[in-house]
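> tool_call: predict_assembly(chains=two)
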Amino acid sequence: GENVEQHPSTLSVQEGDSAVIKCTYSDSASNYFPWYKQELGKRPQLIIDIRSNVGEKKDQRIAVTLNKTAKHFSLHITETQPEDSAVYFCAANTGFQKLVFGTGTRLLVSP
Amino acid sequence: KAGVTQTPRYLIKTRGQQVTLSCSPISGHRSVSWYQQTPGQGLQFLFEYFSETQRNKGNFPGRFSGRQFSNSRSEMNVSTLELGDSALYLCASSPAVGGTDTQYFGPGTRLTVL
């Protein structure tokens, strides 16, 4: 079946540090992997995504890496800022053609 | 373009009642997906509609149903409400079907069942 596991569930860092969130997926047919950021009381918003034909993608302080062989992908945030504090969700599409989300990581960036 | 909108934003119902939630997608998007969000459970997929047809369904009981109209607006209905149905219900529209492209979320409808 389809399953996406996400770790850690909470992550506390100091401002300026890097943060890494890891996800694993089970469906070898998955080929699209988005990351969403949800601030308190707000809707999830896409921050970066990657497709299976690419191993890494960067957008300013955010990067995502994908290891298809190991079936895992990671979100990297460098030079974290207090406004990065939020819940981050990874997701993977499946052969059954739907997005399956991880359970989320609460990131807290302390000044 | 205007974003995804959902109505109502808040609902309070009692057990046994039914409820209908509405979602208006971004103009031009024909895919609408629905998710249930609860603390600790993340976003659970309910179903996806594309061109008025249900394309996929999650592992929820038959009390949860939906439909899509010709203008791509979608509704979901929950009958015989239970306490455990209390959650934030999010819809998301996308230019592509099947979770293969960006999903744009609405603000959600927070349902409380008493």
